[in-house]
Design a protein that fits this description.
Length: 396
Amino acid sequence: MSDKLAINGGDPVRHTMLPYGRQDINQADIQSVVDVLKTDWLTTGPKVSEFESEFANVVGATEAVSVSSGTAALHASMHALNVGIGDEVILPAITFAATANCILYQGGTPVFADVDSTTLLLDINKLESKINSNTKAIVAVDYAGHPCDYDALRTLADQHNIALVADACHSLGGMFGERSVGSLADINAFSFHPVKAITCGEGGMITMADKLLAEKIRTFRNHGITTDHHHRSTKGEFHYDMAGLGFNYRLTDVQSALGINQIKRLSEFTKCRRTIAAQYNSMFEEHAVIDTLNVDSRVFHPYHLYVVKLRLENLKVDRDHIFAALRAENIGVNVHYLPVYLHSYYRALGYRLGSCPVAEKVYEQILSLPIFSTMTREDVEDVVAACNKVFSAYIK
Ligand SMILES: Cc1ncc(COP(=O)(O)O)c(C=O)c1O
């Protein structure tokens, strides 16, 4: 292999693009979808509740309500907590836009808090100063899959009598101490997008202990109607009442059938991701250009993402150039995420550069390397070879 970078016309490390994430679908997944297509229920049928109870069992929650996406899960969570005009909800600056958007959907105000530079999770020390009498909830994001410190967050939330929500869209399969993600916050929101721990194509789940909150969310996902189609069909009734304003956020039986099979495979998926992360960790130990993120010894990390920070002081080029050079080598690196308030929509709402300085600085350094359950040892070696090739060209 020549040292000439692919971005400069050299041969790439790989001939096909290695994506940063992708689904893992086996024959049993396919069969479960095919089987449901032959039944009477394509949506709001028995597979939906079966998936919900399987999911609740796996994460140790008493209630699980499925919805059509992780975004819908977060929106429904904000609705269930009665977030509305004048209410503030605190969230980390570094997350996917949906974590903040769901607060706006309800008329609430997102309050961005800075992150810890070593984990990119909410910095608990900076969080408390953001709490005031308008604060309704904290949405903690288990960035990259690393569960937040739910002991510290619980203490803070209880002290101030505010709700604790986990955006667990990255952390299915993770644990904090002996407790699984899904049982750690008052409300826990999951996504089943194809790059996530398990997939339904699109889909989401909300878990909680509170039965009333679960009922409220079941109504919200079904237009605000208090009974669903399956329930009425079983009882031979046609009357229904729309008691509030809701949405069509239902998950279908086709998606649930896939989810039921995928959740059975969760521990297999997590094991593969952790093996890949361990390979990266050992290859990047004491690296001149890469810092890996810290992992709290109390957590079991399912590694939805493998994020590294570049030591820009040792490089002649910036992160965007490294990104382009790695892409040219056919390594599908990605960046998670621009601090949400720097998107033009949020700037137009009045959010300003400089409000979360750690998040802004770290954003310039981060790169997500490929990680997904079907990646081979050779794929991992390609990523490391491409990184080393690119870094040696640009190291100071
Ligand atoms: C942290 C986080 N929150 C929320 C979401 C939204 O999930 P979905 O794409 O299923 O709507 C995502 C998905 O990318 C996410 O990464």
